[in-house]
Amino acid sequence: MGITRVGLVVMAATLVFHDDAFAQVRGRGAGAGQAPQTARATAPIDLTGTWVAVITEDWRWRMVTPARGDYQSIPITAAAQKVGDAWDPAKDEAAGEQCKAYGAPGLMRAPTRLQISWLDDNTLKVESDYGMQTRLLHFGTWKGGGAASWQGDSVARWEGGGRGAGGGTLLVNTSNLRPGYLRKNGVPYSANATMTEYWDLITEPSGEQRILLLIIVTDPQYLQQPWTVPVHFKKEPNNAKWDPAPCNAKF
Predict the structure, then answer these.
(1) N or C: which terminal CB in the chain sees fewer CB atoms within 10 Å?
(2) Are 135 and 63 members of one domain?
(3) Domain count for the chain
(4) Shared-domain flag, residues 25 and 70
(5) Averaged over 132-151, what is the pLDDT?
């Protein structure tokens, strides 16, 4: 005797019931109702440790303070040139603005060491010995706000498919910056400037680790087009060479 149409309906309803029940159980087992994973737990690359800038390009602009008027390679506007031509480091120091070249857009191109650590599960802390600055890179729903500062408000997220062997990229967008200098000889960026960074990690055949950092600064007031520059950092075995020094407007 074959299965009646009523029997097929009953069997189908039974299968649906069991499928739904299994899905609910599977959902609970996969973490339904649990807090989302943190940025630290999901990090595809490990950027923690002490890193030193490897300056193999733009040496004369990054290792020493250039002469007034040396604006080569930065697509500045006429308004920016006017500010740069009036650069006076003694005046900056007298005004308590000796850190104008140590804001995030200038700091990351400086001859500095970085100490990178997790402040908490959703905040990376980046400290520099050059100027003794601290950047906080916030993941998740952090919104920022408040007074503008040299390091601004940085919102970060992980992206897959990084340029390096680590398989992931740290993308950071920074805004709410206090006006400062892109270059220590007074090349300015305004309060409207924003900075985008792509942090990648590579491992050399020797086992040496390097951060490849691509920086894009956008400023409608002082830049004719986005200023895009690469930066490299090499990992050090410890912080024995860490040498904190305060901001200095002259050198």
Answers:
(1) N
(2) yes
(3) 2
(4) no
(5) 95
Q: Of 156, 239, 163, 152, give the one whose Cα is nearest residue 189.
A: 152
Range of the domain at 218: 49-246
- Tell me which DSSP letter residue 18 carries: H
Q: What is the pLDDT of residue 192?
A: 97
> Could you give the C-alpha distances from 197 to 38, 211, 240, in angstroms and in order?
21, 12, 28
Closest CA to 71 of 57, 55, 56, 83: 83
Reduced to 3 states, what is the DSSP secondary structure of residue 118?
strand
Which pair of structure tokens corresponds to residue 53?
A: 């800038």
Tell me what pLDDT residue 25 has: 34
Q: Reduced to 3 states, what is the DSSP secondary structure of residue 29?
A: helix
Q: Say whether 192 sits in a helix, a strand or coil.
A: coil
pLDDT, one tens digit per residue, over 83-94 is: 999 999 999 999
Q: Is the separation of the CB atoms in 132 and 246 below 8 Å? A: yes
Evaluate whether residue 39 is within a structural domain: no
* Cα 55 to Cα 105: distance, rounded to the nearest angstrom: 16
What mean pLDDT do residues 175-189 have? 97
The pTM score is 0.83
Residue 10 has pLDDT above 50, yes or no: no
Residues 1 and 56 both lie in one domain = no
- Mean residue pLDDT across the chain: 86
Same domain, residue pair 183 and 104: yes
- CA 65-66-71 angle, to 5 degrees, is 135
Q: Give the bridge partners for 171, in sequence order.
A: 157, 198
Q: Are residues 88 and 152 in the same domain?
A: yes
What average pLDDT does range 156-160 have in this prediction?
94
